Amino acid sequence: MVESQFGLLNAVQRPQVTTLGHEAYPLFADKVAAFVFALLQARPFHGGNRRVALASIFAFCEMNERSIDTRVLDEKTAENVLKRAAGHRELGIPPETVFAELREAMRRAISAPGKS
C-alpha cells in the first residue's frame, strides 16, 4: 500500500535530476543509488520499503540491460547497505556518507551492458 505518492514520485524522478544543465547522477550506478536512496528516505510504502528497494535495484538494472554481480552485492552486503541507508538518521550517520556507501556498492556490483 502506497502511503506517500509524492515520496514515490520523488524517488522515481531522482535519477533524472539535473544541476545547472548537467546530470546530477551521470553514471548508471549513481542513478541506481540515487533512486534507491530516495526510495529509502521517502518510505512511500506502508511496509517492505527495503525489500522494494532491493527488488528495484534488480529491476532497474534488468530494464537497462545491466547485470549485478551477486558475488559483490551478496545478500549480506545488500542487507547491510540498505539497512544503513534506510536507518541512517536513527544510527546517527550523515546522509552523504550512506549515499556514498550505496553508490560505491552499486558501482562495484553493476556491470556494463553485454558484460556478465
Protein model, in words:
The chain has 116 residues and is mainly α. The protein has one domain (5-111): Up-down Bundle (Four Helix Bundle (Hemerythrin (Met), subunit A)). It is built from six helices and four strands; from the N terminus they run αββααβαααβ. It has helices spanning 5-13, 28-42, 49-63, 75-86, 88-91, 95-109; strands at residues 18-19, 22-23, 67-68, 110-111. The strands form two sheets. It has a two-stranded antiparallel sheet. Helix 4 runs antiparallel to helix 6 (95-109). The longest helix has 15 residues, at 28-42. The protein starts with a helix and ends in a 5-residue tail after the last strand.
Keywords for this entry:
globular, Four Helix Bundle (Hemerythrin (Met), subunit A), about 120 residues, mainly alpha, two-stranded antiparallel ribbon, 4 strands
